[in-house]
Amino acid sequence: MMGGHHAISGTAAWMALAGSATVLGHVSGLDLWDLSPSQVIAGAVVATGAALLPDIDHPGATIARSGGGLTKALTRAVSRAAGHRGATHTLLAVVAFTALAAFVNGLDWQVRVPVLGEIEAGAALLVTILCALGTRALKTVEGRLLPWAVGLAGGLLVAVTAPDTSFWLPAAVAVGALTHLVGDLLTTDGVPFPTWPLVAKPPKRLASPLWQRSGDVAVPLLGDAGSAREWLLCAVLTGYAVLTTAATLAMAPEVLVL
Question: Structural domain of residue 153, as residue ranges?
Answer without folding.
Answer: 3-257
